[in-house]
Amino acid sequence: MIESNRIPHAIMLTGSAGVGKLPLAITFAQRILNDPSNNLEHPDLRFVFPIIKDKEKHITVSNDLLRQFRKHVISNPYTTIEEWIAQIGEQKTAMIYTEEGAEILKIANMKPYTGERKVILVWLPELMHESCANKLLKVLEEPPLDTIFVLVSDSPEQVLGTIKSRCQIIEVPPINEEALREELTKEFEFTEEQLRYLVHASRGSWS
């Protein structure tokens, strides 16, 4: 897509948790933005992700936890929602709240800071509040020419059908067993029997 300069305005990566959709989405965004860094701080790469609202701590939108999210994803790119919730120290249900809808509209209507495009990466759109999802849909129906949306979903069947219909869906397959064995061998010491069990039990998910 990038090499042919035929990037759709909205893409949704789907597949099981832990198969690498988020790092793939980030790498894709970095290629679009010509950003070789690994700090996830490019001004035209914007993140939307589930949070746990805390008005007393002024946490209502993704940007309020952005620094923590960047650090978490850099250290654990195959993260799951459960690991993210544990990282922010809450045992509650995370979601993308109503307030995020206004943020998405604002970002979409801003000019790119450094180039011709900006990327809005939405992790787990299935956890969006309905009113926020409707605002995202409004942007996807009339997308700014300089904005690419990359959605990363573990459960696309829970995403608003009208949102999915405006995205190019790309199914990310499970990680192959050879790659899983190689990484497990690099990072841990297991017997051959343990390796066989773990690779089989993982079902292609690094998490």
Defining key terms:
five-stranded parallel β-sheet; 8 helices; 5 strands
Descriptive overview:
This protein has 207 residues and is α/β, with parallel strands linked by helices. 37% of the residues lie in helices and 13% in strands. It has helices at 21-32, 66-75, 81-87, 99-108, 130-141, 161-164, 177-187, 192-202; strands at 10-14, 45-48, 118-123, 147-153, 168-171. It has a 5-stranded parallel β-sheet, sandwiched between helices. Helix 4 (99-108) runs parallel beside helix 5 (130-141) and helix 7 crosses helix 8 (192-202). The radius of gyration is 18 Å and the shape is globular. It starts with 9 loop residues before the first strand and ends in a 5-residue tail after the last helix.
Present the secondary structure layout.
Elements: E1 10-14, H1 21-32, E2 45-48, H2 66-75, H3 81-87, H4 99-108, E3 118-123, H5 130-141, E4 147-153, H6 161-164, E5 168-171, H7 177-187, H8 192-202
Parallel strand pairs: 1-4, 1-5, 2-3, 3-4
